[in-house]
Amino acid sequence: MEFRDGVIALLAVAVGYAIGLITFWVVSPILSVAIMLLWQVYRNRQTQKASVSTQTSQDKAINLDWHTHMQLYQEAIATVDECEANINNVLTVQNDAVTLLGDSFDGLGRLMTEQTGFISDLVKSTDDAEIFHSEQMKQFANNTSQTLERFIQSTIEMSASTMELLEKVNLIYESMPQAMKALQDIDQISSQTNLLALNAAIEAARAGEAGRGFAVVADEVRALSNRSAGFSDGIQKQLRSIQSQIEQLTQHVSKVAAQDMSYIIDAKKDIDTALKQIIIKAEKDSKVIARIDSSAHELETAISDTIRGLQFSDITSQSLTYTNQSLHHLKDALKQVTTMSHEEFGVAGEAVTEKIGQRRNEKHNPVSRNEITSGEIELF
Amino acid sequence: MSKKILIVDDSAAIRQMVEATLKSASYQVTLAKDGREALDLCASQRFDFILTDQNMPRMDGLTLIKSLRGMPAFMRTPIIMLTTEAGDDMKAQGKAVGATGWMVKPFDPQKLLAITAKVLG
């Protein structure tokens, strides 16, 4: 047993020695090679690591730069968005304002047309007459003044004529007693003739037959004397009647002639003042009418200017819409870029840039004028 | 019998201003918002004079004139462009499709009335 244990122990030492030798001679080179390989790998790794580290920092720099670009594009897109929204707001406000202005302008135009009609009715004498009321009033005042002047002149002349007439009637009246006296003389002659005829008849009767013829003549003379006295009486009666009528006439005419003419003169003064006021008013109205006429022309010019001015909305709308479309186009292009990687941009970036420029070449702003003076007109 | 005029413009302000101007001279005025609407109106009505904008939705002024010149009723009707466009190339296109004349916005009412009287005379 002790012997076997000794053999096993020897074998074990031998195996151990053999293993040791093998380990030394086989494993050591392998290990050395492995260690060298590992070292090489390690070195390679280290080199690679260093290389990767350099590459990463470059990439990192590029990535950082690209990110900044992207941020820039995003900001630009946001700004363009804001611009578009602002332009749309301006367009909305402008359209609303211009609609309001246009409606107000229409209303004003309608009211002005009505007002012009009313003024025309007011200043014209009748609906179809061309002559103005003020002119007619002026003519009326002038005519009235002339008529009144003639009337007063006639009245004064009539008054003077009446006085003259009265004087002449007085002369007639004053000659009446002379006529009466002449008639009384005739009466006396008649009476004497009658007396003579009576005496003649007496004498004829005394002469008898011889005086008969004379008696006839004496009777005839008496008859003539009586008739003469009768005529005289009749004329005297007529004269007294005339005298009485002249007295009445004189009374009436005197009353008329004695009437105070001053109230007519005063009335004329009042009427003249009123007529002067009518004329002044009419002349003032004429000036106002001339001013209205001039205002109508000024109004026409103002309306023309307003019509021209209100067209700004169409012009600015078209320009703003075109600007908005340009901004939208730019935004689309920027959005396209933001979806690209750095490498994709390297490939397609140029096309996007071209696309932005392409719109400028293909489209144009429909508004070519930058002022509100009226545009040119051309007939083909 | 007053003359019938068709105004074609997408801008309400322009339609309103042209209408006010022409009505002040007792013309009969009809309004259209674009070329298509104008063409529909011309299918059933006759007009003595047409005034059209160029840039409008659905149908522009040049296309409208071209279409109208193909219709016997509108072969000789005066048609004037009233537009913000003032380029010579655009005017040449207008002349080519048969426009009678070209007016650049903004228009002066007195000048518009004068040109209207001239083309209708």
Structural features, described:
The complex is a heterodimer of chains A (380) and B (121). Chain A has 380 residues and is mainly α. Chain A contains 6 helices and 1 strand. About 5% of the residues of chain A have low confidence. Chain B is globular. In chain B, β4, α4 and β5 form a beta-alpha-beta unit. Chain B has a 5-stranded parallel β-sheet, with helices on both faces. Chain B has one domain: Rossmann fold, CATH 3.40.50.2300. In chain B, α2 runs parallel beside α3. Chain B is an alpha/beta fold and 121 residues long. Chain B is built from 5 helices and 5 strands; from the N terminus they run βαβαβαβαβα. Helix content of chain B is 45%, strand content 19%. At the A-B interface, α1, α4, α5 and β1 of A face α1, α4, β5 and α5 of B. Chain B: Pfam families: Response_reg. Chain B: It comes from Shewanella decolorationis S12. Chain B: InterPro entries: Bact_response_regulator (IPR050595), CheY-like_superfamily (IPR011006), Sig_transdc_resp-reg_receiver (IPR001789). Chain B: This is Response regulator receiver protein.
